[in-house]
Amino acid sequence: MQRACAAALLNVGETVIHNPGTSNDDQAAIKMIQDLGATIEFKEDNLIVSSKGLIANADSSAKIEVNCGESGLGIRMFTPIAALSSQQITINGKGSLLTRPMDFFDEVLPKLSVSITSSQGKLPLVIKGPLIPSNITVDGSLSSQFLTGLLFAFAASATEEVTITVIDLKSKPYIDLSLTVLNDFGYTITNNNYESFTVKPNQKLNTSKAIDYTVEGDWSGASFLLVAGAIAGDITVKGLDINSTQADKAILQALIDSGSRISIQNSQIEIATPLLGVNALKAFHFDATDCPDLFPPLVALAAYCNGKTVIEGVSRLAHKESNRGLTLQDEFGKLGVEIVLQDDIMIVHGGNGLNGAVVHSHHDHRIAMACAVAALKAKGNVVIEEAEAINKSYPDFYKHIEKLGALVS
User: Fold this and answer.
1) Same structural domain for residues 369 and 269?
2) Whole-model pTM above 0.90?
3) Is 229 within 8 Å of 255 (Cβ atoms)?
4) Among this protein's residues, is 234 annotated catalytic?
5) Residue 146 domain boundaries
């Protein structure tokens, strides 16, 4: 949804976005494209975006401020896009986003003719372009989201072929998703084995083209429902694209490896506990380096799996809404689950049952959902403090698990 909003801002003309999201991150993206010059209208459950390109009046002396809310993707994707303007723009956020590192922009944007000031590598950012695409080498080890922002900005403005070379790219599936969206909007980018990306000159400058775009169902949110089915009973989940490039589709492999009963069909996924019940789930080994957002649902699943589950990729968790490795260790510890952090791996000692307890989301949407899913078979009530954190990505989550039979108050 956020990528679609960015592409719609850059598309000169009208874009109709079907199945638009309603989460806080989605609403932040909608507000950002409005602040950057787009007009929007909701009509028959669709979002209609009209754009003349990025901020039509580039000579205006008005101060422009854009707030990304708490969206890590939002700040990292929209900053290079905003830098296409020659106006000075202040980019800010709130909550945990204020403490997350943005040194990448301090280093990279000046190489693309953009002036930038930050608060010692953190928000707020004050930028002034226009960004001029050129051959550049960037570090992809912290987050793929910075690269996504450059790809969108380069795709929209390149007047000649340019190449972005990437060192140690993480979360490759998220880049696949970005490239898919850009391709759907008519841009041409060649992926050179994730080592570099060649952006073709934009053929759409000063042209108007109406685009219809349908937002995929979200595998990140669905992963919690699928784990809930593996733990607590039969669930059918519809609306997911089995052929999606979304990284979190990898949850299916973990569910299969754990021994849950799963039927994957084109129109729906059916998931249930093993025939012998939740106690028959077994420990698994999973590499989450390229899909770090899966750690919370994977831990909820592993808590009910007999034995020691090993999850790789802990280093990717330090700069999320919370330090998720430590947060998962602390909060699941309250539920009676021992989690050991060892270098880049997490070891979850599962299968011993979970206790009722008071846990805290740490204002992290995925931690709140993981605790709620883990609570489904706990011995006693689980109270989640700051439970409204789910609004960041999945505001209907509690309604959905309640609809499935969970007792939520």
Assistant:
1) yes
2) yes
3) no
4) no
5) 2-202
